[in-house]
Amino acid sequence: MRGPERLQALVHTVPDFPAPGVLFRDLSPLLADSASFAHAIELLADQAITAGPLPDLIAGMEARGFIFGAALAAHLGTGFVPLRKAGKLPPPVIATDYTLEYGTARLEMSALAVQPGQRVLLVDDLLATGGTALAGAQLLRHAGATVTEALFVIALDDLGGHAALLDQGITTTALLAC
């Protein structure tokens, strides 16, 4: 198997985690398999290259977006911006609150990480409702960045994330759909 189907077998579904009714997609087996992890990064890189000019920066959402985003940034030769949970970055930060599939959260970014006009590609492991990615885009745009593309390893197609991001001018691509 050469395509994303090779990765699908390494994604495990865990029911009722982190809250009742949520089906958590565990990518730990994919990350632990070096060939599959490298393959995922290559597929994400192919998508980034196909989307148009390479971004100036990759932004990844905490926590698993750090893993895929940082590896993709290194692969593409771009910088990486971590979008963190509240209280994890030193000041100055910019922040936004957002809604998750199972609650609310706060996302922060260093106010010094992005320069106005930089093109930033959002990367995360999973797209559900789009709340985290929209919060990330809002932070980046507040800093003056241009955000028009987002890449995900998995998309939960029935939760509306693709449409929510598209409504904000962000095209999404996922390697796997569930």
From TrEMBL:
Taxonomic superkingdom: Bacteria
Keyword Transferase: yes
Catalytic activity: AMP + diphosphate = 5-phospho-alpha-D-ribose 1-diphosphate + adenine
GO biological-process terms attached to the record: adenine salvage; AMP salvage; purine ribonucleoside salvage
GO cellular component, one term: cytoplasm
Gene Ontology MF terms in the entry: adenine binding; adenine phosphoribosyltransferase activity; AMP binding
UniProt pathway annotation: Purine metabolism; AMP biosynthesis via salvage pathway; AMP from adenine: step 1/1
InterPro entries found in the cross-reference section: Ade_phspho_trans (IPR005764), PRTase-like (IPR029057), PRTase_dom (IPR000836), UPRTase/APRTase (IPR050054)
Subcellular location as annotated: Cytoplasm
Top class in the EC scheme: transferase
Domain Phosphoribosyltransferase: residue ranges: 34-147
This enzyme's EC code(s): 2.4.2.7
Keywords recorded for this protein, A-Z: Cytoplasm, Glycosyltransferase, Purine salvage, Transferase
Biological role stated in the UniProt entry: Catalyzes a salvage reaction resulting in the formation of AMP, that is energically less costly than de novo synthesis.
PANTHER family per UniProt: ADENINE PHOSPHORIBOSYLTRANSFERASE
Description of how the protein assembles with itself and partners: Homodimer.
HAMAP family for the chain: Aden_phosphoribosyltr
Record-stated family: Belongs to the purine/pyrimidine phosphoribosyltransferase family.
Protein name: Adenine phosphoribosyltransferase
Organism: Croceibacterium mercuriale
